[in-house]
Write a structure and sequence with these properties.
Helix content: over 70%
Mean pLDDT: 84
Number of strands: 0
Oligomer: single chain
Structural class: mainly alpha
Distance between the termini: 18 Å
Strand content: under 5%
Number of helices: 20
Radius of gyration: 21 Å
Length: about 475
């Protein structure tokens, strides 16, 4: 593939076949993440451990994901895209089956690590496969479809998880991954183009030793901020500081190594990729940070169950689902700048009612606001996902996928932690429903402020390329 350029209006049917093939496997990863998130209390009770212990079911998955993401580009160059995709899906299938058969908290945590390793390969590889198949053409439209798992996961995950926990054993949360994995493997074997011979390429072992643990330490430190003490905890400051030092050392070394580095960070000199990554980080704070506040608002302040809260959040997912196709077409036609600015402003408007909401605010009004908010999320994320790859050569796409994925992952984790810490601080000493409502309002106003900041920064994005 030559350097990517603006392309024809029509998308090659072969590209769509690749998109839908990887979409099936991608659904398994994102469903799994959102379903498990609603089950921690049930797992703690059933496995007879504390919630703080069972929290490692989510934490170890996140850490394994973080350690594995950086190696995806090298593994793809060595094994080939098709082999790596099938191998990672097979590993995720094994991890899912083992998780469903777990007999203790320790075994479940270990098997979730297996899933995390596979997920760390699958998530960035999904973007790489479709961008390389598209050849840089019609990226907005292609990304609007490949983003479906990220859209459907938050819509269906909490609902499916709630139904399973209400009517079935928790092990079915992992069995639901099996059909997606099996279908994804079969489709990949039939549809994805054949790989060349396996190659021998040196692995940047020192780079991996710096970047993998560095990224995991940052995410671990950030995840601990949700505990009492927030950012002042030792288990926040130490891993966060160590992770930043490791990542800084990796970056300095990678700049010197260039294309031989585990991840070629020099790609950030490419102007579309640099602002897209920054705004994906910020969108993680703005969009996904507030995603944690919303179910807490419905459950803690309004006393709803996890299933009821999940059902009330469906309009947000539907808004994203409805806006992504239009956002993809507009992104290809007009570029990212004004589209992303408008998206952040729509998110701001959709979040605004929650800045005034209390325990008695009309739910239909809030659901309408969530529909608007979800539409804004689609308008923000689709152009940014496409923008990061514009103008890149085929060989540069895997590293760009890793960079954008890390930006989104860290931004989402950081945003969730910051808003939970703000909520905890505002709710400290709250002795009435009104005071608790005020704490949520304060947190949502921070989310509104982040959306406004995103709109301002988006003005620096390049226009039509």
């Amino acid at each position: 593939m030559s350097d990517m350029k603006t392309a024809p209006a029509k998308v090659d049917p072969a590209v769509w076949r690749t998109v839908w093939t990887v979409l099936v496997g991608g659904l398994a990863v994102l469903f799994d993440t959102t379903i498990v998130a609603v089950a921690l209390h049930t797992l703690a009770d059933d496995l007879d451990v504390s919630v703080s212990t069972i929290q490692w079911v989510s934490t170890v998955y996140l850490l394994a994901l973080a350690v594995t993401i950086p190696i995806t580009g090298w593994a793809q160059r060595v094994l080939g895209s098709k082999r790596l995709w099938i191998a990672a899906l097979a590993l995720f299938l094994v991890g899912s089956v083992l998780s469903s058969l777990a007999w203790s908290a320790g075994s479940l945590i270990a098997f979730r690590a297996v899933q995390g390793v596979a997920g760390g390969v699958l998530v960035p590889l999904m973007s790489t496969l479709v961008v390389q198949a598209a050849g840089g053409d019609n990226l907005g439209r292609v990304m609007s479809v490949v983003s479906l798992p990220a859209v459907l996961g938050p819509i269906l995950g909490p609902v499916v998880g709630g139904l399973i926990l209400q009517h079935l054993h928790w092990s079915w949360m992992f069995w639901v991954n099996v059909p997606f994995c099996v279908a994804g493997i079969v489709l990949a074997a039939l549809v994805l183009p054949k790989d060349g011979p396996v190659r021998r390429l040196p692995l940047d072992v020192l780079g991996l030793a710096l970047m993998g643990p560095g990224l995991a330490a940052v995410l671990w430190g950030v995840s601990n901020t949700t505990l009492d003490g927030g950012f002042g905890r030792v288990d926040v400051l130490v891993p966060l500081g160590a992770g930043i030092v490791l990542l800084a050392a990796f970056t300095i070394r990678a700049v010197r190594q260039g294309a031989d580095a585990l991840v070629d960070v020099r790609l950030l000199r490419h102007w579309p990729l640099a602002p897209a990554s920054l705004l994906l980080f910020l969108s993680g704070i703005t969009l996904y940070g507030a995603m944690l506040l919303l179910p807490l608002y419905f459950q803690d302040l309004r006393g709803l169950s996890a299933l009821q809260a999940g059902l009330l959040l469906i309009p947000q997912g539907l808004g994203t689902l409805g806006s992504r196709a239009l956002a993809g077409k507009l992104s290809d036609a007009m570029g990212a700048r004004w589209l992303v600015v408008a998206g952040f402003l729509i998110v701001l408007l959709g979040t605004l009612p929650f800045g005034f909401a209390d325990a008695t605010t009309n739910q239909w009004c809030l659901m309408a606001a969530l529909l608007v908010r979800g539409a804004g999320m689609g308008v923000v994320t689709i152009p940014l996902m496409a923008l990061g790859f514009r103008g890149l050569a085929r060989a540069e796409v895997p590293d760009a996928s890793i960079i954008t994925r890390i930006a989104t992952q860290v931004g989402g984790s950081f945003g969730a932690s910051v808003l939970v810490v703000i909520l905890a601080g505002a709710a400290a000493g709250a002795s009435s429903t009104a005071e608790a409502a005020g704490a949520f309002q304060t947190s949502f106003w921070w989310a509104i402020g982040f959306a406004g900041l995103g709109a301002v920064i988006s003005l620096a994005l390049p226009g039509r390329l």
